[in-house]
Amino acid sequence: MKIAQYGTAIAIAHAIVNGLHGLAHIEIPVALSLLQISFVGIVIFLIPIVAAVLLWTPLYRIGSWLLLCSIAGSLLFAIYNHLIVISPDHVSQVSFEGWGLLFQVTAILILIVDGFGCWIGIRALKTLDQPLLS
Prior knowledge:
The chain has 134 residues and is mainly alpha-helical. The protein has helices at 3-27, 34-54, 60-84, 99-126.
């Protein structure tokens, strides 16, 4: 399987897991600041989709960088907000009942998917000298 295919697959998995996590945020509710909402919308949702598209074009180098940077940014955001800073977004502050279960499960899945996504991004960058479309 080619890097473009892996990158697209990880971008889709990333979007699904983060979309479900966002749904849990809305339903619980766990509010985000305007800055956090902007970061989530641009870095976590928009840029990985753009990166996946670019991986299939002659601009695959830019797509590789965008994929790695956006997924790494998402991973760091999740680690900080779910595991480090104590806030309503920290996993210890959300019950395992109802929508909280989805919140907890997707918070862990984000770490797994984004960790794997960083690996894919690094692999993509290591193959920059090789055509991704062939």
